[in-house]
Specification:
The chain is elongated. It has no helices and six strands. It has one domain. Strands 1-2-3-4-5-6 form a six-stranded antiparallel sheet, with no helix packed on it.
Length: 91
Amino acid sequence: MPEVYLGLAGESSFGISANVLYQFNDVRTGKLINPYIGLGLGFFKLGDTDFGTNFIVGTEIDVLDGKVFVDYSSHNMFDINQFSVGYRFTF
């Protein structure tokens, strides 16, 4: 799963990453809620420019023809932390 982000608060930052997610399809949360975890590698700039790892944990919920997701991502061994909420759709 590719990821690109831009931070605008205070010192500007950006990142480009490639992540692999594992969905826990066997968790008995019903068909609507799908928890997942992920790992990845990326290139980040927050002050200095670094190459590092990503850790992701989250869930997605079926809504209409897509999915609403909520996740926590840690980039560069917990130097950059973010919470994300969004909508995934297929086209």
